[in-house]
Amino acid sequence: MSTRKVSSWASSRWAVVWILSGLLGTANAALFEDDEARRAILDLRQRVEQSNAAIKGLSEENARLRRSLLDFQGQIDSLKTELSQSRGAQEQLARDLSEVQLRQKDMVNGVDERLRRFEPLKVSLDGVEFMAEPAEKRDYEAAMDTFRKGDFVAAQVALSTFAQRYRQGGYAPSALFWLGNAQYANKDYKESMANFQQMLKSAPAHPRASEALLAVSNIQIELKDLKAARKTLAELVKTYPASETAATARERLARLR
After folding, report:
1. Position 242 in a domain
2. Phi/psi zone of residue 2: left (φ > 0), alpha (ψ -120 to 50 degrees), beta?
3. CB 216 within 8 A of CB 197
4. Is there a contact between 126 and 208 (Cβ–Cβ < 8 Å)?
5. Which of 101, 137, 225, 251 sits CB 3.0–4.6 Å from 220 for a disulfide?
6. For residue 130, what are the β-bridge partners?
7. 138 and 229 share a domain?
8. What is the extent of the structural domain holding 215?
9. Are residues 148 and 244 in the same domain?
């Protein structure tokens, strides 16, 4: 083989080797790039999976938080209901207590009123002060109302009943005095005189005693017992000289002589 041919073949051989080397380098580079891409894809996929897992975890945590919030809201609503019920119960208790206090006050006032009906009262009548039962005062005033109306028959009955029922009371002398006047108006002279005399015997110092004695003399005059009338008038002047009726008695004595 000639030297030129050998040189040409060698050159061709090295050219082929160089081409093959280039091709092999390109292939290796492509293979390397595929591995990098694969690893990048795998890494991205892993990250996506991790992200999805994190999102799933967050969703579950969010769901748990929602359930917790709902439970908490339920507890709050329950507490509100209990508080409202408690407040309503307290308000009802306050109303009940107020009603009880009002009833208690009414009961106390009622008891006081009933007690006052039985407690003795201080009375001033015909210049005399004394203690009297409420019923006694009421009955006397009722009898006197009848007398003032001029119904002397009914007044005689009322005053007679009163005098018998309360004969020991402070109203007794006045009741006998007005009973005698009612009987006098009804021309029941004997009973009238008896009540005037009883009044004078039981309360000779009564402010109306001189009037009662003058009334006795009037009855005696009606009965035509002038002697007894003069005696009664003289007794009036002697016993009650400073009274207004004493002056009237003196005038009548002068006429009866």
Report:
1. yes
2. beta
3. yes
4. yes
5. 225
6. 123
7. yes
8. 132-256
9. yes
